[in-house]
Amino acid sequence: MFIGHFTEEPWQVDNWPDEWGTGIHKVSNAEYDPKRAANLYNRYLDEKIYAEEVGFDGLMVNEHHSAPFCMNGVANVQASILARITSKVKILLLGNILPIHDDPLWLAEQLAMIDVISRGRLIPGIVRGSGGESISHNIPPHYNRERFEEAHDFLIKTWTTPGPFRWESKHYQYRYVNPWAVPYQKPHPPIWVPGTSSRETVEWCARHRYPYIMLSTQLELTREMFKVYYETAEEEGYDAGPQHLGYMFFVHVEETKARAMEVGRTLTQGVRSPFDPGVQRPIPWIMSPPGLNTRTAVALRRQMVAPDAKGRTRAGALATFEDQVATRGMIVGTPEQCVEDIRYIMDYLRPGIIIFRTGDGAMDHESQMRTLKLMGEEVLPAMRDIAKELGLPGPYEVDPATNEPVAALAS
Asked: H helices of 24-175, where?
């Protein structure tokens, strides 16, 4: 099993302006304090270094644009830093937003350099991005999927075909493609794709045999999307397995349940992503402008609801912290309690990739470091034993592209 660490790297201040709770995309960057930002950036990097020390397999890095809930507006900048200051962990980009890139050749060069500097530890995940990304970078939303697929095809050819060559497609044209930097990993670094409710993206991943990671979604919807992957794989003539599927969810671990509930609550406070439960009133035309998603994807997103502790179905954006804990939307407790809940998720979904989201919202650095320490000492070792018991190989044990043991391929 592959176990990763992630935090959205939110902006944090002592006193939150009232308007931040009514629509984070309304907040002006006049609120940005570079000195505070410097402290936060370095704090999050320190936490990632510690996550490597305690035994995580990978560090997930993402990006969002024009939004205080994610300070990391350029994931490749942080990935390049991690390539130098870490030594063992995989650097997992989930990911580069392909449709907003007008020059994917430049992106191919950046990722190749990161892979080389890290000596082959890069996982260059790719995403379509939300409406906020398209609007921030002036990209027509209705071309989102076309640009995503064309940029992907260009990256693969650039990384696997000696130059110079010419490239002509609807959205990208190059007379001369011959980047000097090419990836360390051959034929190219492994590509993973995250998502929430797009059936089309799940099917696309399965056709390419790329691992697909569901992000903080309810268990039933996650299982439904995993089923789509398995069915598409069967149509493509291969058997998908745990090595093809992943799941990310919130976790906070403390020595006592009472302390875990007290501190874990801060995960739902402060500046938070409009994709997360507990966030209200995202701006529809920014989150999902016309043309960005198909009707099928929009319908599925409407199903992303969270039953509360009494079994009532409530919109995910209205789920309380207690409801999320009660329904395993968040795993909060002692190491023993968390392992029990995590085991349930592992058995129910059977993912080969699990990414823990910690340190978000208004959680402070000390609380994040405590939970990382307890996870390294007690949770991660228990998970690896459970994964062996349940037969849940990760993508570095069984190659998703071939379904062959990785050790056998290496030999």
From this structure: 34-54, 75-85, 104-117, 131-136, 144-160
